[in-house]
Amino acid sequence: MNSVADILLDWYAREGRDLPWRRTRDPYRIWLSEVILQQTRVAQGTEYYLRFTERFPDVASLAAAPEDEVLKLWQGLGYYSRARNLHAAARQVVERFGGRFPVALEEVRSLRGVGDYTAAAICSAAYDAPCAVVDGNVYRVLARLFDLDAPIDSTAGKRAFAELAQSQLDTAHPGRYNQAIMDFGALRCTPSSPRCEACPLAGQCLALAAGTVAARPVKQGKTRVRDRWFNYLHVSSGDRTLLHRREGRDIWQGLYEFPLIETEEPAELPELVRLPQFRELLGDAPWHLVRSIPLPKHQLSHQTLHAVVHRIETLSLTPAAAAMAVPTAALGDYAVPRLIDRYLIKYQI
User: Which residues contact 18 (CB under 8 A, 6 or more apart)?
Assistant: First the structure.
């Protein structure tokens, strides 16, 4: 009987996806693809990968770019910490490794935002290092193949799956094997309605034999999702509009948006007007409300955003310290959250 690795590699040769980052051994481009594909579908991620490699063909060009340009190019992918870490890591490669992407697993792992999975994926694909990857697809394939009930979101479970993945690795072809098992999970051993009757691993799948395919893998529990209420003040005067750059360790760090008043529950404009943040922003200049626009609910991984944009015109802008006046025609040049981008597109601003 063929080993699991042999079956996966044979399946991959016939049915694996032809993706641009699989046609290269350049660690920079492999790394770029891995970062982009975190929390992103392949179809969408491919467009961004091609856009990034055209603008930043090597790690030095990415390192030399201003952060605002990197964030603007990333706009629409979400999870913007990935873009900031990508940019910071590119600068680490230039500063610490002379612009040459590191080879040793631990050196790759030391780069900003690079975890065990990403380091293993880069080193196996670029250098044939015998490092097994463990992502959501691999968890699912292994949990079903060996009928494991260890929670994949527990410390013990993660350790057990990492050891199992390493034991199954084809060390002669680690890069191809890793791509094979990930594609197998994405295309064949899918989360729901897997085609088990036509699976080349059906004869070796313990979960299929036990009737537990739908129950694998196991998770301990879900993280609580919290609600947030965003009240945006879209303030314009003539051909200029106020923008604010998000700082701190909250969502969308480094992106631009309209001045924001966040409240603990839904708030009407008269309530906002009485707040010091509103008075600081508008000052004593006369203003009038053009329109209040509720935006569609915006779902993040652990947060639900309820946003309203109050479009306000005033005779003069007196920007608060946290805001700046920019030409309205140039709003599209700034990297903004998807929530704001959709608003700008819909209302042709």
Answer: none
Residue 105 near residue 64, CB atoms below 8 Å: no
Which pLDDT band holds residue 224 (cuts at 50, 70, 90)? Answer: confident
Q: How far apart are CA 137 and CA 161, in angstroms?
A: 12
DSSP secondary structure of 219-266 = -S-PPPPEEEEEEEEEEEETTEEEEEE--TTSTTTT-EES-EEEESS-
Catalytic residue among 15, 34, 47, 280: 34
- pLDDT bracket for residue 36 (50, 70, 90): very high
Asked whether 40 and 33 are in contact (CB, 8 A), the reply is: no
308/268 Cα distance (integer angstroms): 9
- Catalytic site includes residue 34: yes
What's the predicted TM-score (pTM) here? 0.86
Q: Any alpha helices (H) in the chain, and if so which ranges? A: 4-15, 27-37, 42-55, 59-64, 67-74, 81-97, 105-109, 116-127, 136-145, 155-168, 174-187, 206-210, 269-273, 276-282, 338-346
Q: How far apart are CA 146 and CA 205, in angstroms?
A: 7
